[in-house]
């Protein structure tokens, strides 16, 4: 008894209609559908009465690999119609594809990705033959708006051409071999049933086998199913390797997620259009699309006249006739509307001409047309649909902290209740679950803020996000810890995200993971090549060690290990830095973090203040060291001395060092930037004419106009280390030092960019000098 194979395109109304008609006509005993075989024991969940679209979400995780896949289903998905119609005629309906966790799906986020998109040579030839640049337009003309007569034969011919002699990739070959095993096994059962039925006088055809799969696989399945079965019986279900975690759940889906113009790489674009085509046919779909576009444009006060509509209808009809379509297809309607409504030149191709997501700067009319095609429908699961334990745990946690309402929530971090609420909301944030966003709270470990404010936001997609987050664990604690552990595993020791990861771990209260993460950090600091990234980790760790009595990480021994290792590594890296380069703010911030650690946690460090002062002296005197590091080294020595630490050694002469730096105006600003980054308070300290500010002022006053113009850009960057109030205080002291009167605030406010003002002044001086040289200046 041969099987009946129907090759389909995923999310095609024409294919879905053919599947429904075939099932009703054949009334098969078995309907085999491309879908995850591990879901066969739970197919009743799909029949609960959901509002489509929905998707089967599958997840997999082991020590080496994490994978998630979706198998979306909408009203016009052939797979969904096969399930529904097969059950209605009493057939045994089975999914016969490999489970989604299988390595065959390793590089695919969507099970129903179009194979012809991966093997596009044949479709490119067909597009050229039929004079269209889009596979979607080709498909519509051949199948969606074409007469239904001979549809099955046209589909077979199309997919035979697409498959041709192409060698499928390893994943497709594994899937096809597994599906063919199912077909052979069920065919053997059907033949046995037919023979038993014939002996009992039963009617013919009761055991027909219908196979519904993606059309690319159909030619291979026909050939494979004709071969002898390697083993009798249904194929065994693959099981995950020991220690792996996997599972599948139904999740709500949306038309936006289905839409190719929003980035979905499978099936048909413009789901709202095809939904209407499925329900009412192509002519009604075309009329509805035109009305939807006009309604959206008028709602946004874009003028659409009756004349425009007449022109669009005429263009649509002409294009349909020119392209040989008996009724207007989707691209006919869109091209007609674009021709009538877009009055400006387009800077990029129309997205439906090449199935590309909307690009930034797309024409507003085109944006509304794509939105009208896509629609806003969101699916809804039946209340009895099983959900992962995380969904119930999150609901209970939110109810317990009073976050189920839409009112803002304030968490007092000094209380157990407030800290619990904060950790719950941070774990949901980490898992990407919408509904709440933090508008105020501590920004880092040293931030003295002890309250958080969480505002309610849109909850669209929240249920789906929770179900998908269930792949990480059964509770919020477990799921958040798993996500953090994955981030720690994939974030390299040189990545600047380590500091954010450390703070997120503390915010979520994942104390066990905190210890493991800090242990990893302490072990890898010795290999860290970037002082800037190290400084971010050091500043975060110091803030947590000093102040985090709220979150419970203060005085942690592992934090102490991180501080010691980071300080030693930063000092080693900066002493080895050579060459001429501009000021590096991240590197200077790292040295500032070293300074703060020496001030606030000296007992934790192997490096002493005296050791650091000696190293700073070596850098300050090294002519090959970058200018910003030489200035920072002077500043570091000054702060160590100001802090009452052991005598840092003989001062090399700040004024003379500043004058040497001024010898090269191109590096003076970098030198001062390093100095200010490390010794900002010392610069602004009022100690009379012997102050650091006086020394800096004297050096700058000695610059010629041309030298000052060269130094000015870097000088502006250097003084940016001072906040506005401190810059005003410096201006006031400079005015007083010169015995002048005036407003310090007014001195800081210029009518134009200071660089432009300085350039203009230099130009005037050059013109004056040129006039004097030639005796052309007239007396006033």
Automatic annotation (TrEMBL):
Signal peptide: none annotated. InterPro entries: DUF5682 (IPR043737), LolB (IPR050458). Residues 642-662 are annotated as: Disordered. It holds the Pfam family DUF5682. This is DUF5682 family protein. It comes from Streptomyces sp. Y1.
């Amino acid at each position: 008894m041969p099987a009946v194979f129907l090759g389909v395109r995923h999310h095609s109304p024409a294919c879905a209609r053919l599947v429904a008609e075939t099932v009703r006509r054949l009334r098969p005993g078995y309907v085999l559908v491309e879908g995850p075989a591990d879901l066969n024991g739970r197919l009743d969940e799909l029949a609960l009465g959901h509002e489509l679209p929905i998707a089967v979400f599958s997840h997999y995780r082991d020590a080496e690999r994490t994978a998630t896949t979706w198998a979306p289903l909408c009203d016009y998905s052939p797979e969904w119609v096969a399930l529904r119609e097969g059950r209605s005629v009493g057939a045994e309906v089975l999914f016969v594809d490999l489970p989604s966790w299988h390595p065959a799906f390793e590089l695919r986020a969507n099970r129903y990705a179009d194979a012809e998109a991966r093997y596009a040579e044949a479709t490119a030839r067909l597009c050229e033959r039929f004079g269209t640049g889009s596979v979607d337009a080709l498909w519509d003309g051949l199948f969606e708006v074409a007469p239904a007569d001979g549809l099955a034969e046209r589909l077979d011919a199309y997919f035979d051409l697409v498959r041709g002699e192409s060698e499928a990739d390893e994943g497709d070959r594994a899937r096809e071999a597994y599906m063919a095993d199912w077909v052979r096994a069920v065919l053997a059962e059907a033949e046995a049933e037919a023979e038993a039925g014939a002996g009992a006088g039963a009617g013919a055809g009761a055991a027909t086998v219908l196979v519904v799969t993606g059309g690319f696989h159909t030619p291979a399945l026909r050939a494979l199913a004709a071969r002898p079965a390697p083993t009798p019986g249904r194929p065994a279900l693959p099981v995950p390797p020991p220690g792996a975690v996997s599972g599948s759940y139904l999740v709500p889906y949306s038309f936006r997620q289905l839409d190719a113009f929003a980035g979905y790489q499978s099936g048909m674009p413009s789901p709202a259009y095809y939904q209407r085509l499925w329900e009412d046919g192509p002519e009604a779909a075309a009329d509805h699309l035109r009305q939807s576009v006009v309604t959206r444009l008028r709602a946004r006060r874009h003028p659409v006249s009756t004349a425009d509509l007449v022109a669009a209808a005429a263009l649509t009809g002409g294009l349909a006739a020119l392209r040989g379509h008996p009724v207007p297809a989707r691209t006919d309607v869109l091209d007609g509307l674009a021709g009538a409504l877009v009055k400006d030149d387009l800077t990029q191709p129309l997205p439906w001409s090449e199935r590309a997501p909307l690009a930034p700067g797309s024409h507003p009319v085109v944006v509304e047309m794509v939105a009208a095609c896509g629609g806003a429908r969101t699916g809804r699961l039946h209340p009895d649909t099983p959900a992962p334990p995380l969904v119930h745990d999150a609901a209970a946690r939110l109810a317990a902290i009073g976050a189920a309402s839409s009112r803002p929530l304030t968490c007092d971090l000094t209380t157990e209740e407030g800290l619990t609420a904060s950790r719950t909301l941070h774990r949901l944030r980490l898992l990407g679950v919408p509904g709440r966003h933090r508008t105020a709270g501590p920004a880092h470990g040293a931030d003295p803020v002890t309250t958080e404010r969480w505002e309610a936001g849109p909850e669209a997609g929240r249920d789906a996000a929770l179900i998908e987050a269930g792949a990480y664990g059964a509770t919020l604690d477990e799921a958040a810890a798993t996500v953090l552990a994955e981030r720690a595993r994939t974030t390299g020791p040189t990545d600047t995200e380590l500091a954010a990861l450390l703070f997120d771990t503390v915010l979520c209260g994942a104390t066990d993971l905190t210890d493991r993460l800090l242990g990893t950090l302490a072990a890898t600091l010795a290999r860290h090549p970037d002082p800037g990234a190290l400084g971010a980790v050091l500043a975060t760790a110091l803030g947590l060690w000093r102040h985090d009595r709220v979150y419970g990480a203060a005085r942690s021994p592992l934090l102490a290990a991180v501080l010691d290792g980071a300080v030693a590594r930063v000092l080693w890296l900066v002493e080895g830095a050579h060459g001429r380069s501009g000021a590096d703010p991240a590197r200077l911030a790292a040295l500032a973090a070293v300074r703060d650690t020496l001030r606030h946690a000296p007992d934790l460090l192997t490096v002493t203040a005296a050791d650091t002062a000696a190293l700073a002296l070596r850098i300050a005197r090294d002519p090959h060291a970058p200018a910003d590091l030489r200035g920072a080294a002077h500043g570091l020595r000054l702060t160590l001395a100001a802090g009452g630490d052991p005598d840092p050694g003989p001062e090399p002469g700040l004024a003379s060092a500043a004058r040497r730096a001024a010898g090269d105006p191109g590096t003076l600003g970098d030198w001062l930037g390093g100095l200010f980054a490390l010794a900002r308070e010392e610069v602004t300290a009022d100690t009379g004419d012997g102050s650091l500010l006086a020394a800096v002022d004297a050096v700058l006053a000695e610059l010629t106009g041309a030298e000052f113009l060269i130094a000015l850009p870097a000088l502006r960057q250097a003084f940016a280390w001072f906040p506005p109030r401190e810059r005003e205080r410096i201006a006031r002291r400079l005015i007083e030092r010169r015995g002048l009167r005036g407003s310090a605030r007014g001195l800081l406010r210029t009518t134009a960019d200071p660089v432009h003002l300085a350039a203009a002044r230099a130009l005037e001086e050059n013109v004056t000098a040129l006039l004097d040289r030639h005796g052309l200046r007239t007396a006033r």
